[in-house]
Amino acid sequence: MYELLPYAGFGSLGKINRDFNGLLSRFFQGADLPVGPSQESFVPKVNVKETEEAIEITAEVPGLKPEDIELTLTGDILTFKGEKRDERQEKTQDYHLVERSYGHFQRSFRLPVKVDRAKLAATHKDGVLTVTLPKAAKSGAARIEVKGG
Fold first, then answer.
1. Which of 68, 71, 126, 142 has its CA 20 to 30 A from that of 10?
2. Mean of the per-residue pLDDT values for the chain?
3. What is the pLDDT of residues 29-56, one digit of tens each?
4. CB within 8 A of 132, min separation 6: which ones?
5. Which backbone phi and psi does 128 adopt, to 5 degrees?
6. Between β-strands 2-3 and 96-110, what pairing exists: parallel, antiparallel or unpaired?
7. Of the candidates 72, 67, 60, the residue with the CA atom closest to the CA atom of residue 83
């Protein structure tokens, strides 16, 4: 899960994880085994922008249709997931080629502010998913007039 807060790292645990992943990568280098994300894995690139009125998240999802993407907001966690499928066929007189690739993805973000759930919006255009999360009205200080009786 990704939070919209400055990343402070995982300290020594993160270093152990990076060292172990590096060891596995070197050990299996040249082998035809998937270790970690491969060339065909799909993890959408995401941009997060916060304004005074809303949080806007854009994700690159080329080749996906709107019905291939599922968005949920549970508490303060926004999750989007889906599956990318790709198939290519070539037929000539000498050969027949069929290539298929697919990959499931899921990304989650902890929202730093309360959002107005009645005004959530998501659009998909030209391979870019845009999620707009309007901020909830702040309950600020109010002046209360004291009246005489």
1. 71
2. 79
3. 655 444 444 444 678 899 999 999 999 9
4. 54, 55, 56, 120, 121, 122
5. -125, 125
6. parallel
7. 67
